[in-house]
Amino acid sequence: MLFYFHIFDKSNQILSVLLKDQMETVMNINQEQLLIFKTVIDTGSFSAAARALGKVPSAISMSIANLEIDLDLQLFIRVGREPKPTEQALVLYEKTEQLLVEINQWKQHAHALSSGVESSLNIVIVSELLHTGWTDYVVLLESKFPQLQINIITAPQEDALKMLKNQTAQLAFMFEREELESHEQFVELQAEYLIPVVAKTHYLAQFEQVKFEQILQSRQIVIASRDKTIRPELLYSQNYWRTDNHHSASMMIIRNLGWGILPKQMFEDNPELHNKLKVLQILDFTPSFEYYVDLVWSKESNLGSAARFLINYIRNQRIHTK
User: Fold this and answer.
1) pTM for the whole thing?
2) Which domains occur in the chain, in start order?
3) CB atoms within 10 A of CB 137
């Protein structure tokens, strides 16, 4: 038994040496060699590849010969007027284009990092704002910084503020606040509306106008932080249930579990809600809450080029729309 284990161990050592040698050879192959190899197969000849790449045919022939030496593999059969790729060459060809794309992406990413573009950007969207046009800004970032990894997180407003403060997110789309913390900075985007609603089967739905006292005494479904020590925004009722997003809030309201405040845009995007929910007309104040949406960031965060680009883009938009 010991003898067989010794043989197995020796085989692994030999295999490791072979793989190491092969990897070192591959590491010596450069992007230009791969491009020439691909172009020869694409065009069908050394001379056509030379014309396509703006080189002399002898340079193409020499590059292919050196590649064959480096790989210890025949890539082309040189019989007749035009070289014919071997089966091994065709197998490698399938991977070459993908490898060239990855090399270009790597170079672009390295250039982006050297010019101050962050490798990733975390953007938090307050739950009630998922129906707004925030995706337009993500599309813009993707077109401007194609190598940037963008991570979108949704959270209640209080949690979004915490994420900016501890720098787990660099930017946040959120509602305006009455008081700003010292570390916050923002640029205003647009106005959005929230409306109080209740299921058509709820007892409050029978009233044309609802008194504020009735609101206080009825259970409210409120969108709030997961941290129960934080008081929810837009909380009116003495009895309330919490959820962290407006989708689950709307489902709970539809099932007659309480009244709540939802984005008006939800109703425009989903007409079915009109059949299930009623907008409450509150006697003591206007049943529509207008809030401005801000793009917020922390002054203490070291923002990269992509984040700064978006901030400046929105600022310029405001200047031109005034």
Assistant:
1) 0.58
2) 28-115 (1.10.10.10), 118-190+293-321 (3.40.190.10), 192-291 (3.40.190.290)
3) 18
